[in-house]
């Protein structure tokens, strides 16, 4: 019995140690990950990035944020919006003034708004369904708006501004639309466009 326990413990220990990576190993993979991205080898970068994710805590905080943004971008470009949002959210939570992540989140959440909007247009004759979809539209729009506003405040574009105004109009939020410029001005005071990797 003791022999079986020792063998089982040895196997378990071997499995754990093969899964755990040292900080140097994680940084080596991070270097390879960045090289693959620079070489525009998205498939390899995505594979390497997914290997890094369980051990990303071994990266320094700034490096980890860069990694999270980069892997989020790879997931987004691969059509994996849910995973992209997960990593962009980590960046936005740690660096709320980094408007590049804010813009990415805003446009990813906007996809839900657009999907609900299309269903809402198709349900014009069904009063109950129209009310339900209108509520869902408002919830989705309110989720996208803070991110879009930060992006617009820091890096204004006609497209983003038009989307923001359209969301307010479609929600019937005249006060939000009327105070938009003042809020954008406040949001524009702290803008970060590059993450420090050191």
UniProtKB/TrEMBL annotation:
Residues 1-22 form the signal peptide. SUPFAM superfamilies: TPR-like. Keywords: Signal, TPR repeat. It comes from the Bacteria. TPR repeats lie at residues 65-98. This is Tetratricopeptide (TPR) repeat protein.
């Amino acid at each position: 019995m003791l022999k079986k326990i020792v063998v089982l413990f040895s196997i378990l220990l071997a499995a754990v140690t093969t899964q755990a990576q040292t900080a140097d190993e994680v940084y080596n993979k991070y270097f390879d990950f960045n090289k693959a991205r620079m070489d525009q080898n998205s498939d390899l970068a995505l594979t390497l990035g997914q290997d890094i994710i369980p051990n990303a805590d071994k990266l320094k905080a700034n490096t980890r944020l860069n990694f999270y943004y980069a892997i989020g971008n790879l997931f987004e470009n691969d059509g994996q919006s849910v995973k992209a949002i997960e990593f962009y959210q980590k960046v936005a939570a740690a660096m709320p003034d980094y408007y590049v992540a804010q813009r990415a989140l805003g446009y990813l959440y906007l996809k839900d708004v657009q999907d609900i909007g299309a269903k809402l247009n198709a349900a014009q004759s069904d009063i109950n369904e129209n009310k339900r979809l209108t509520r869902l539209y408002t919830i989705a729009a309110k989720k996208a708006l803070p991110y879009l506003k930060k992006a617009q405040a820091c890096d204004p574009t006609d497209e983003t501004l038009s989307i923001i105004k359209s969301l307010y109009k479609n929600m019937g939020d005249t006060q939000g639309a009327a105070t938009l410029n003042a809020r954008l001005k406040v949001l524009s005071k702290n803008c970060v466009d590059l993450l420090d990797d050191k």
